[in-house]
Amino acid sequence: MRPATKAIALAAAVLLPGGGAFAAGSMPQLIPQDMVPQLVWLAILFAVLYLLMSAVAVPRIAATLQARDAKISGDLAAAEKANEDARTLIEDYHQRLTNARESARGLTREREEADAAAATARLSEVNERIGARIAEAEKRIGEQRANALTGLEQMAGEVAESVYAKLVGQPADAGSLSAKVASAMKGSG
Hints:
Blueprint: H1 3-15, H2 19-23, H3 35-168, H4 174-188
Helix pairs in contact: 3-4
């Protein structure tokens, strides 16, 4: 036998009544003469353990459970408050973002209007300069055309006199020939 088993058998033989039966290998719990004292000791130990559990362990466990429930409900309340605060902050953020977008659109619109006004002013200034240049150029073209037509009329008159003189063999009347050339020039021009 092992030393631990020997020690347990020796202690049982000394302490328990009928320890010899235990040492011999039979089970003392099943001996009918020993059952009543065992049931009495079972009831006594159960009562003692029940009183200890109800007086010491159960109140501590109940206090721990109550503290845990209080902590959980406090944490849940704090989480709900934090959630509401976060929702409020998000709504405020979205409102400020919307206001900023509207402000940016307004500034963009104002800038576009200012740019359009500046572009219109520059365009009208350029149009005025171009119009003045065009008018000046048309005036010069008109003068040059008038000069060219005058010179052309003189040249046409000279050509007509020369042709008339060659065809008819005598010089033409300069006044009537000039009037006919002038009317022909006005009719074609």
